[in-house]
Amino acid sequence: MFFKSKNKQALLGDLGKASLLGIHLVSCTFVGFAIGYFLDKWLGTQPWFLIGFLFFGIAAGFKNMYIEAKKIHEEEKKRDSGQDQQAG
Predict the structure, then answer these.
(1) How far apart are alpha carbons 87 and 68 in whole angstroms?
(2) Which of 53, 54, 58, 66 has its CA 20 to 30 A from that of 82?
(3) Distance between CA 11 and CA 45 in Å, rounded?
C-alpha cells in the first residue's frame, strides 16, 4: 500500500513523486487540447481535431499516471521487503 514507510525521508520522496500524478494528467490534457486547437485553426476543421486530440491527451495522462503509480508502488515494495529482511 502507498505511504506506509517508517522512514520519513522515503515518505517525503514518495509524496513528491505522487504529486506528479496530477501534473501528468493536466499537462497531457493541455498538450492534446493545444495541438487539436491549433490544427483546427490551421486547417479550418473545427472541432474535430480538438476533440480527438483532447481525448488522446486525457488517455496519455491516465497512462502516465498509471505508470508513475506503479513505479512508486514497486519502489515502496522493494524498500519494505528490504526492511523486513534487515529486521528478521
Answers:
(1) 29
(2) 66
(3) 48
Separation of CA 29 from chain center:
11
- Contact (Cβ atoms closer than 8 angstroms) between residue 5 and residue 79: yes
Cell of 8: 520519513
- Taking only the tens of pLDDT, the chain with its 88 residues reads 555 556 777 777 777 888 888 898 999 999 999 999 999 999 999 999 999 999 999 999 999 999 988 988 888 888 878 766 665 5
4 burial level (CB within 10 Å; 0-12, 13-18, 19+):
exposed
| Geometric angle at alpha carbon 85, from 81 and 88, rounded to 5° | 135
- The alpha-helical segments, DSSP class H, found in 1-88 are 8-43, 48-87
